[in-house]
Amino acid sequence: MGSWASFVTARERCRWRGVIPAASVLRLSSGRGGRMTSEMESSLEVSFSSSCAVSGASGCLPPARSRIFKIIVIGDSNVGKTCLTYRFCAGRFPDRTEATIGVDFRERAVDIDGERIKIQLWDTAGQERFRKSMVQHYYRNVHAVVFVYDMTNMASFHSLPAWIEECKQHLLANDIPRILVGNKCDLRSAIQVPTDLAQKFADTHSMPLFETSAKNPNDNDHVEAIFMTLAHKLKSHKPLMLSQLPDNRISLKPETKPAVTCWC
Ligand SMILES: Nc1nc2c(ncn2[C@@H]2O[C@H](COP(=O)(O)OP(=O)(O)OP(=O)(O)O)[C@@H](O)[C@H]2O)c(=O)[nH]1
Fold it and tell me: What is the 3-state secondary structure (H, E, C) of 162-196?
């Protein structure tokens, strides 16, 4: 682990309506229509227990209140959104993946400057048919956006303006931090998107560019850096926050001061 590792204390081992493993995933699908939609609406308000709380009245103190950053990861199907989010939350490349239906979300708790913060990654479906009824929920109360393209697939790069446009249509604030990630840099001989082209695009849209691989074991620090960069940025902004209450419910509350966001 490189320097970014110092920011990370522990994998989140929370339990969400029962047992969810360290790289917690709650899958919400659009396939069941309104029922899932309304579940998703309240998904951030459901019981959310830490391992301490699960032990009940065993004498341990209530869990500390912690802020949650909701970060959505968007881009074409197959660019590697699931693999990137899994890599960050579980620390490894997944054994197998399937097309995401609706949204999966994964969480990891990190320590930033002494504050325990939960990074909640929303791994959204890239395929239109698996996302259309869910889109408005992705963007609700979002703190940051990660745009992903596949470096070996020019079409996924050309789709970025459409993803940015979708974002514009749904985000309340234009100044929400965004980053651009080119994935699959391990497939060197198949690269179609040159770095200078991607950098120009990133500059035009005022986003930092990261090229990485969710698969290459040597790139773990880079995947780490991508999400930790956002977490640091968000922590310093203190925008509208989800926070975990001592009784394990999640509340949404505005900061006392209006958020001033500057991603530069
Ligand atoms: N070589 C290589 N393959 C990768 C990398 N990241 C993902 N893949 C592969 O790319 C395919 C798609 O990965 P996913 O993470 O499922 O893609 P996705 O963007 O989540 O796709 P949707 O769920 O359909 O939106 C899988 O076969 C992965 O194994 C990478 O960094 N390098």
Answer: HHHHHHHHHCCCCCCCEEEEEECCCCHHHCCCCHH
